[in-house]
Structures are given as structure tokens and as C-alpha cells.
Amino acid sequence: MHRKHIQLGLAAALTVASLTASPAWAGGSLESYDITAGAPSPIPGHIAARVIPIRWDARCMPVPYLVNNTLNPVPNPLGAPFMTLADATTALQQSFDAWNGIRTSFIDMRIVGNVANPGFRGFDMKNELTFRTTAGFTAIASSPSVNLIADVTFAAGDDIDGDGDSDVSGAITVCGDADGDGDFELPAGLYKAGTILDNDVQFNTKTSNGYRFTLADADADTVTRSTDLKAIAVHEFGHSHGLSHVLDNQLSSSDGNGATMFPFVDTGDPANELSQRTPEDDDIAWSSYFYPEGSAATGAPALQPGDQAFNSVYNLIKGSVTHGVFNEPVAGASLRATNTLNGKASTEAYSGTTQLSYNPATGGVFLVDPTFNIIDGKYVLPVKRGLWHVGIEAIDGAPVSSGSINFTAQIGDIFGQQNFNEEFHSGPLEAAIENWSGLSIPQLFLGAGQTQNNVNFITNDEVTIANFGTLDFVGFTGFPPGSYYAVRVPGSQITSALPAGSDLAIHAMQFHTFVSDTSVVPVYAEATLAKGSVSGGVATVDLAHPLARDTRFIGQDNDFAPFYFLLPSVLGYAVETGIASGHIQDLFLVLRIPTTTPYPGVSALPPLIALDGGNATNDVPINGLSYTSTDGVTWSQVTNFNFRFSLVLSESPF
Questions:
Q1: Which one of 136, 145, 306, 316 is most buried, by most CB atoms within 10 A?
Q2: What is the distance between the alpha carbons of residues 587 and 494, in angstroms, rounded to a whole number?
Q3: Taking the model in full, what pTM does it have?
Q4: Residue 277 in 3-state DSSP?
């Protein structure tokens, strides 16, 4: 009964780090869609399906889970088993408690028993924790859910999962095993679209591609097929109550670890593994926003001893995002609030209210065009008291692809909207063409329960000179401390980048950077914009007279790190007139690795850069614009790679 209103298999997987009604702001949520209204789509025979978050109904608190007891001890694909199921169960409940203990969130997930399932997890009204995965399963773990895609009123006796047994009871007010048959029944009543009906979490222990799960801090090691169980479980249990992946993989300029809901874990870096055991500010904020304490007078959302009302702790920053070139509301832009005083990333959100075209005959969903699929570009950021920079970033695959986030992010990506550069909110100066894209006007909250509206973004209309193709490799590990990497931007390319007669503004240079150990911040000794020239393949770079320099440049792990210039229009004028007079021939974007060792992290390797090339056939030509130097004087042309450094320009607004 009602199976046409159920969506199967919304899975969120954790993988190893590698070289993937009212407006429903995407926020930090996994998403489904709602076909309740039945409004027609532009496609004949289809209906509009509003994209919505998924979450548990408050009547299912505490959410009951069963541990599959058919594998005891827990398999170890690297050797003899050593973890008992009892020890694993204790660790899994501790991982649930990492979320249950959030004082501003009423989420409550508990292990209540065991299930003897010799097969694999599935939709059976049993929330199962299992160490069994199918042959084709390749992730470390995943947390697939089943949810409603329409409002449904369930009556006592309804069989939701189609197994011939009732899944709804009129004799209970909270979810539980009302008839003692091992699965869980819902209380009779109305359930909204997006309600989770069944969630399972599976951990990969197969000999072919599985992982050795450990428990003790001391057992976290550099073996890449060994990882901490609680770290992985805390991440998956975030998905279990509806949280999506986030882009935040670097908390600050001194902490390279990311939010628990970042989709990759470095199983070769013990510090990164163990950091995921504890939800960070972003994780806590979204669990609290979706399950706010004090939001009802009775039931799970009502305040209990030790709880804090959401509105007594959090404020809201609200606004919208408009694409500065397409003049469209942006779906899936990543917004982030960063503490102005300590530089720590706090909360990340995704913009956009979206919908899909749903085919009732097949259950398929389709895109039509941005006008139909993207309703608005709204977002909301829950933040605590403080002074907050608000920035925006495209979900462009570095460090996370839209396919790892949710429907809204994918919709914006498919329509080509994720093609803008990072920037900050510049208050009343926010525009498509800005004088200074690095300017940030922060938001101040002196208390709690406040809302700052209309923190609106217009993505910058810029030209990015990027003389490289797709990411192929990262490097380098063998250069001496203090070595330099540089990319030449020919003067002719700069002067031809904008329409004739335009005044030039040079806003930033961007470096695609990496680290070997993801708990480490990629810190470089210098980032420099310099004049230079090339004669007969020999480069000369004027490091002694830089146009701009930062002597402690903070990179971003697997992302483009921007170096914003202070006066873009002034710099653009100087470069433009310098090229015209012959004083400037080319510009060089220069990055220098630290001058001293040992480098931080278990691998003790320098911060790295992203490379295009190294293949027999490359997607773009190797253009010979990349150089290395060990002393900043003699430069060697690189003939097999393009370094992924870029220069960001625009017309001057003056």
C-alpha cells in the first residue's frame, strides 16, 4: 500500500580521499522530492516535483536500530578478526551519541537489539547496521534511506514495505515494534513527503575491497585499508538523519581537518581519521536546524533537562544567489560563514529552491530548463553569536562534485551555473562587476534568535585565464625546500582577454593546491605576482620587484586558493600601461614551498600543486608556460605538465 509514494535507495557513501510548501533551502540536507500537489509540468503527462529535504518524523524519536549479528567477530580483510560484535555495537552507539548529545538538536538514534540477516540490507522497516555488503559495493560505508515522495496518511494495518505484515499501528504514539515481530511500526497518522521510513548503514569488510575497522586511538595508522570505526560511523549517521555532504575540508589556516560530513577520509592519516569522530560546527548547526530543540511544546522537539532551544543559540543569515552572467537564480552554490576573529569555518549552505519533472508512469525525474527547475536562489546559514564573513564558492568538483551533494547542486551544475570564482559578500558594493572581489563586509550578531535578511550575492562576471586542462596528477615531492613553481601569462593574452576599449581590473590569481596528509594545512612560503619575460625558452622572473606578494600563503586542499589583489583596477591599469610601453612583457604567477623542514604530517611531504598532463594524449596541449626553480634565479621550463594556476580579470567598474 502507498508504494507509489515511496522512494527507494537514497544512498550516501563515504569514500577514500583520492586524486566524487515553504521554500526548501538546500542547506546541508540530503534531498528527495514532493509530488503531493500534482501540479502539471511543462512535459505532457508529467507533474512538478518540488525538491525537499529528507528527515525523520518526530514520532520516530528515538530512531530504533538493529545490529546484524550474523558476522561475529567483525571480519578483518587484512588478517585475523579481532573485534567482537559487542565491542563494535558499543562503538556504534557511541557514534550515535556524538549526534544525540547535541544540546540544540532533538535527533535521537539508538541501538535497541539485533537482527539475524544472512543477506544484505534492504527496505524491510528494520533500520539495520551491518558489516555485509554486496560484491559490487566499493565504498568504505554507506547510509541508504527510503522516504516518502508525497504526503500520506497511514492507517492501522497498512503494509508499507509489501511483505504481508502490518507496518502501522493505532495503538502506539511513537515508532516501535508494536506487534513483537522484529520490525518497526509507525503510529497511524499523516506523514509528510520527505519522511524517512527505513535507514540502513553498511560497512565494507569484504576481502576483495573492504576495510579493517579499528576502535582504539592507537590503532589508527597509515594503512590505507584500515580505518577507525567510530569516525566512519559518525559520518554515516549524519546521513542517517538527513545531512548531506559538505565542501568544508579545511577548518582554518591552522587546522587542515574538515567537517565530519566532508565526503572523503584520508585513511592513511590517523589525525584525519580520528577528527571525524566529533561533529564540527557545521555538522552541529545543521543537525540543530533540521531537528531544532524547543520547536514544539510536546514530544521529542520539546525542551528536556539539559537541552537548549535552537533560537537561544543560533541566528540566521538569509539571502539569495544570482548568476552574474546568466542573470538566473543559482541552484547549488556553496555559501560559507567564517569567523572573522579566528578564521575558522563554521557553517556551509547550498542555495536554491528547485523542482523536477516527474513521470507518474515510470517514476523517473527529468530536467526541463532553468526557468522551470530553479525556482529561486535562496539560502540560509545558521550561525552563533559573532562576526561572520560570508563567502560563496562553485561546486565544480574541487574538492567535491555536485553528484556527491544533492539534487539541487546537481541541477545547477547540469545547467552550467557552477562556473564562477570564489568571492565574499561585499555589502552594498555586491555586483556582477566589482572593484574588489576580495572585499568582505561581515555580518555581526551580538546575541541569538536574530535574522539578517538580504545578504544577497551576484556571482562575479570575470574572465579567468586558465592555460590548462583537467586535473591529472599532483606534484612535486622531490624538489628542495624553498623551490618555486611558476606559470607565465603572456602579455598578449592579458590585453586580448577583454573587449577592445575596456579598462582592465586584475582581481586575483588562483593556485590549485594539495597536501599529502589531509589533516595538514597547505602553507606556502610565498605567493607572488611578478613581471617577467622569456627569451629563447629561458625565463626571467623579477621576484625582487613583485607586483603583489604574500609571505605566508594558505592554500586549499584539492581546491583553487585565491590570492586577492588589493586594488584590482589600479593593478590592471599599471599592467595595461606597462605592456603598452614595453616595461611589462609577461606576468608570472609564482608559488614557493616552505624553506625549512621537516614538513608537517605523517608523510612529511611538502605542500603540492595540481598538474594537467603526464599522459600520452592530453585533453589540451602542454603549452610550455610552466616553470620550476630551486633558487628563484634559474628557471626550467616544464614540458610534460601544465600547472593549474590561473589569473582572474574583469572590466574595471570605474
A1: 145
A2: 9
A3: 0.94
A4: coil
